[in-house]
Amino acid sequence: AMATKTKTAVTKGVRSRQKIVETAAVLFNQKGFTGCSMGDIVAASGLEKGTLYGHFSTKEELALLAFDYAWKDTSDKRLRNVDTVSNAVDKLKLHVDNYVNTPSFPGGCPLLNFAVDADDGNLALRTRVRKALKGWEDLLAKVVEDGQSAGEINPEIDPHSVANLVISILEGATVVARINKRSAALDDAQRHLNLYMETAVRFRTDS
Question: Model's pTM, two decimal places?
Answer without folding.
Answer: 0.91
